[in-house]
Every structure is written in structure tokens, then in C-alpha cells.
Amino acid sequence: MKVLITGGAGYIGSTLAPRLLAEGHGVRVLDTLLHGGNSLLPVWGHPRFDFVRADVRDRSAVERALERVDAVVHLAAIVGDPACSRDPEVAREVNLDASLALLAEARRQGISRFVFASTCSNYGKMKDPTSYVDETSELAPISTYAETKVAVERAMLGLSDTNGFTPTLLRFATIYGVSPRMRFDLTVNEFTMEMIARGKLVVFGEQFWRPYVHVADAARAVMAVLGAPAEDVRREVFNVGSTEENYRKLDLVALLRPYAPEANVEFVQKKEDPRDYRVSFAKVRERLKFTPEKSVPDGIADVARLVREGVLTDFTKPEYRN
After folding, report:
1. CB contact at 8 A, 141 and 149
2. Sequence-ordered list of residues with C-beta below 8 angstroms from that of 148, at least 6 positions apart, any chain
3. How many angstroms separate the CA atoms of 187 and 217, rounded?
4. Farthest CA pair distance, the chain
């Protein structure tokens, strides 16, 4: 297939692009390069790779980028609560308005596959702390980021089935791990860097639950959807992660202790957190036979080695954060 990855220079996209190329697909990336373009260097000279530097809000650029494409992986977004809170209007333009316009144009051009990157943050706070939420659970978005993702999800699931159009929604767990576009503002990566490089860490609300998935496994999940029969993924929602990979922040600190036994960790108590959820990933395992290959301890080991060996040193660089 020829696959368009919006936001392809980003954390997931720069991991996904070389994997698609290695499997024989063609890849086109549309990205503004807000965080730089170094992440595209590993694929830049590939004969089946091409690049469109544009904003996903640019309708004419999007129209051109979709030409002669078989599938769209829509990753471009203002990602995360802090980034969306800085400018909610821009976040809605990018995450909601541009996503709906991209969806409409893809359908107009007869593109068959459309994979949308959503988030487990859509679940908000689980009502029963002893249970797990799944794809049928009530959505309770509590941030601009999650609200825009839920709005796009609802629009996609409400589409009529025309011309074999196959939209699929992936609700990713919190992502971690080493990527060509490295990030140190994600919980596992940030905790690892802070404890090893700075010897201290402040943890807010250590008792609340989140699920986690490695960035390489996030890319594998996208590929699993693209490779599945259309009837198995059309208008389907899949949580992406592993049920065994639900952790509290205090669990992450315990996993990190062997790497930084002398680090000073301060826990700041929070009685309430609007996002507290353990997620079941049974559906993606059963329906797509997808199981993550990497665990949080694996990701911690990789990031720890990256920090300890000085491969990256200036962790304050803006390109490492959204």
C-alpha cells in the first residue's frame, strides 16, 4: 500500500514509517516539523518515501497529500493536556476541525483505510476502582485533548458504510520508549531521566492507575490494523496495550529504583485525580491477535541506557517535549 502518515515526524510516526517501508509499503509523511525533522533522517533517502511539509489544517496541501494513497494513519495532533491547554482554540482547529476535514477528503478521494490515533484518556475516571474499562465503557473526557478525540471518534463511528471505506479507531495507552523523535515529557521516559540524570523526582498522585504501551508496539498495532481484513476492523475501536501493563506511578518508581537507588523521590499526595483508569486490552488480543512485545521494564532499561551512556544529554531541549 501507499500510506500517508500525518504527523509522521512525531513520536509514533517516526517509529512507524521505517517499519512500513521495511514491509514493502510506500510512505508519505505530512508534517509541519514543529519539533524538527531529524527523526526523518533514517528514511529520507528511501525510494518509496516522500514528504509534504504542511500543516494538517491546510486543506489544499492535505488534498495533494492524499493523492494516490491507499491508507491514512492520522497521528497529527496537538498531543496531551498541557499542550492543548496552552491554546485550546488551536488544539480544536488541529485535533477536531482538521481531522474531520481530512476524513471527508479521504472519503471523497476513495481511500479505503483510515486509522485514527485516539487515547485511553477518553475514559477519564473509572466508576469502579476494582474493575477494568474496555471499548464499551462510558467515555468521560475531562480535557480539551480528550474532548477533541472523542468528538472525532463519534463522527467516524457515525459514518455510513460507503465504497468500502474502513475507519478504525485506536485508543492508545500512555506511550513510552525510545523513538527517533525522542520525548522526555511522557511519564515512563520522564521518570527514568529525572531519577538517573538529576537524582530527584517529584511524583503527584502516586496511587492512580494508567495503562502503558511501548512506542514500537503502538506502531505494530497500526500495522496490524492495516494488514487485517477490512471486515475485521471497519468502524471498530481497539484499546492498544496490554492488560498486564496497567501501573500506578508508585509502581514505576519501584521499577526504577535499581537504576537510581540514591535518587530522592518526593511523593505529593492528591486525593482526587480526574483520570484514574485500568484498561482491558482483551479485544485487540482476541480480534487482531495483537500482543505487545515490550513491557515497561524493557522501556525503562532502554531509556536508562540512553541517559547513562550520554547518547542524549541536554534534556531541556524543546524538541524533547510537546
Report:
1. yes
2. 77, 84, 91, 92, 95, 96, 99
3. 17
4. 60
